[in-house]
Design brief:
Elements: H1 2-22, E1 27-30, H2 34-42, E2 47-50, H3 55-59, H4 65-70, H5 85-104, H6 106-117, H7 128-132, E3 136-139, E4 155-157, H8 173-178, E5 183-187, H9 196-209, E6 215-219, H10 227-233, H11 237-242, E7 243-246, H12 253-256, E8 262-267, H13 271-280, E9 284-286, H14 291-303, E10 306-308, H15 319-330, H16 334-352, H17 355-368
Parallel strand pairs: 1-2, 2-3, 3-4, 5-6, 5-8, 6-7, 8-9, 9-10
Helix pairs in contact: 1-2, 1-6, 9-15, 13-16
């Protein structure tokens, strides 16, 4: 591991060289880029933390300690919120084991000592420390999309920050296809890789949870790899016609799900997907895949805009459970209407939030305020 310690300090030094060469009024640092924070500390340079995570994941270390044990599900645990009494001991145990592992990890100790030997004092620049020493922290959510929390003064919520994408045009072939009926869009992100079993489970879930007139727009990487499975599961031509399965969607998914016929967005639980769907006002089904994505699924259920579609088997996909989640969102029921209504309400709030323009304006304000430390 010694080589990694050397590389870490070299990265810190490289960041310091860049900062000295540019001499910026202020630096914007990704919340996961500890070396960048450390470089700013060493140079006493003001910096802003930019986090892709949900607000709770940024502010969690700054919450009262007891809440991390008994109130908030531990990150990556997938424990429901509010925490049922039957899960409290599990949550406490996971947190204690995590703390013990970090405090006793020899690599953490070696890295800390190596940093100290190279004039980088104090704790590692993660968690609360990177926020406390910053002048501000950006989070791309709104209170209505998050679990209840005490927001530190330095942490600002700006709503979803989305790309300026080319919208769907009425003349587009995809737009005309979407006009054909109620549609579910499924996109599991660029890091997810299906197995044959998951392809089968997904198709069977869609067939079980949708009506004969519903459409499915489904993005699958390496689609040719699953051609045999797709042909076997979609052997009925009438069923096959309802599925539009593609390797790539030319229009940004965030624009596709704005179409009036899109009634649900199935995704892996990534923050971008979560916030895009929230801004579009579309109910979500989350098939969570790793760590904080389990928390996103719990968050979607708590705020009332989606369903944790693979809770019993995550990160796998079960046809029965996923199909039931689809049916719950599409069936004419009080639950489905309540979820759709709440998603629309959240969408209006997200679109009214400051967004990327608010973030840009805040950066300029902080850069010009040289008295702010």
């Amino acid at each position: 591991m010694a080589r990694h310690f050397i590389e870490y300090v070299r990265i810190v030094d490289s960041c310091k060289n860049i900062i000295n060469a540019v001499d910026p009024n202020i630096v914007v640092v990704d919340s996961f880029f500890g070396a960048g924070c450390e470089a700013c500390w060493s140079l006493s340079k003001r910096y802003i933390v930019n986090s892709p995570m949900a607000p709770l994941d940024v502010a969690r270390p700054l919450q009262p300690m007891w809440k991390n044990f008994f109130y908030y599900p531990f990150i990556g645990s997938g424990i429901p919120f509010p925490i049922p009494w039957s899960y409290v001991l599990k949550n406490v145990t996971i947190l204690l084991v995590f703390m013990w592992r970090v405090l006793t990890d020899p690599d953490v100790k070696e890295l800390t000592n190596y940093r100290h030997e190279h004039s980088l004092p104090g704790r590692l620049p993660f968690g609360d420390l990177s926020i406390i020493r910053s002048v501000h922290a950006f989070c791309f959510g709104i209170p209505e999309l998050e679990l209840p929390l005490i927001l530190p003064p330095k942490v600002g919520l700006y709503g979803p920050v989305t790309l300026d994408s080319i919208p769907l045009s009425r003349g587009d072939e995809l737009s005309e296809w979407l006009d054909g009926g109620r549609t579910i869009v499924m996109c599991m992100g660029s890091h997810f890789h299906y197995s044959e079993a998951q392809i089968r489970s997904t198709i069977r879930a869609f067939r079980a949870g949708t009506s004969p007139t519903d459409q499915v727009l489904w993005k699958i990487r390496n689609m040719a790899k699953f051609r045999r499975v797709l042909d076997e599961e979609l052997e009925n031509e009438r069923v096959k016609e309802r599925f539009r399965i593609v390797e790539w969607i030319d229009v940004d998914p965030g624009e596709v799900i704005k179409h009036e016929n899109v009634v649900a967005y199935v995704h892996h639980g990534g923050a971008n997907s979560y916030f895009e769907a929230a801004r579009a006002g579309v109910p979500q089904i989350i098939l969570a895949q790793w760590l904080d994505l389990y928390d996103m699924a719990v968050r979607a259920e708590y705020v009332g805009i989606g369903i944790y579609g693979n809770q019993s088997v995550a990160p796998d996909i079960d046809a029965v459970e996923f199909g039931a989640a689809i049916s719950r969102l599409l069936s004419p029921s009080e639950e489905a209407e309540k979820c759709a209504r709440r998603a629309r309400e959240i969408g209006e709030l997200c679109r009214a939030a400051p967004g990327k323009k608010g973030v840009a304006a805040k950066i300029l304000d902080l850069a010009e305020d040289e008295n702010l430390q």
